[in-house]
Design goal:
Length: 268
């Protein structure tokens, strides 16, 4: 399999911002900000900000008197930041290039699973937080859906699924581990966070067939598949996916995914 980073792929970033963010990530982002009780005037760092779903929701909470810094390793994703032009974007992650004791809160929406050395990243985050400051993170829970089975079945018709999974695991190494919230809690506590709390919430996702396909084009797994097909092969793959979805879901797609919310505070 090729080793090109999907994070730097402009097509993935475009479809992620237009489809994946809207259908899969916006509601958890809004709920994360509410759960952390982020207040007006606070200084917030959003780690792995991507196209800005969490940063945008955070900006609404802190208002003009606050500060939101969006940190991500992908310039392509940062180009598609949503929300206020006042959000400061920094193309550097997972490093945290800030002095100690700066932020009242740090948010990490669905990003800890991507960071190779998440333990080191958490230590950097706790350093950048003010005493008593809070880190809030989200991660997908475990479980499969009927529509994901159609997606996997289509992949098997065109590329080696084991090779796709191996590359996926290289890019998102902790997806399975952090699908159990207890492991995120353990990581927080090991980094020195206190008052660690966890909550899991279910989200019903309802999309039409074309919107679902757009979310897959804007995904890591979809980009891996596309990178290992010719242009013609990719078009054929998408056509077959649409055909299979039409057979299984003629009235549109509805499925439920659960999201873990974990928070912890820097000791005072």
């Amino acid at each position: 399999m090729k080793k090109k980073s999907p994070y730097l792929d402009s097509q993935m970033a475009e479809f992620y911002a237009k489809a994946s963010a809207r259908h899969q990530f916006e509601r958890p982002a809004e709920d994360l900000v509410k759960w952390l009780k982020i207040a007006k005037g606070e200084r917030i760092l959003d780690i792995g900000s991507g196209s800005g779903t969490v940063a945008s929701a955070t900006w609404q909470a802190v208002g003009p008197s606050g500060l939101v810094v969006a940190l991500d390793s992908s310039i392509e994703m940062l180009k598609r930041q949503q929300g206020s032009a006042r959000i400061r974007t920094v193309a550097c992650a997972p490093d945290v290039p800030f002095v100690d004791d700066v932020f009242e809160a740090v948010t990490a929406g669905f990003v800890l699973t991507h960071i190779q050395d998440y333990a080191a990243a958490l230590v950097q985050i706790i350093r950048a937080l003010r005493p008593g400051g809070i880190l809030g993170a989200t991660a997908w829970g475990s479980g499969t859906t009927k529509v994901s089975e159609v997606w996997k079945s289509t992949i098997r018709q065109y590329v080696d699924p084991e090779a796709v999974q191996k590359e996926f695991d290289r890019i998102i190494p902790w997806d399975e581990l952090f699908s159990e919230s207890k492991h995120i809690v353990e990581a927080f506590k090991s980094a020195g966070f206190v008052d660690v709390k966890v909550e899991t919430k279910d989200y019903l996702i309802s999309v039409d067939l074309q919107e679902y396909i757009a979310t897959k084009i804007g995904s890591i797994e979809g980009t891996i598949v596309r990178d290992n097909l010719t242009e013609e092969g990719w078009k054929e793959f998408l056509g077959q996916l649409l055909f299979s979805l039409q057979e299984q879901f003629p009235d549109g797609i509805k499925y439920t995914r659960n999201v873990h919310f974990v928070s912890g505070r820097k000791p005072v």
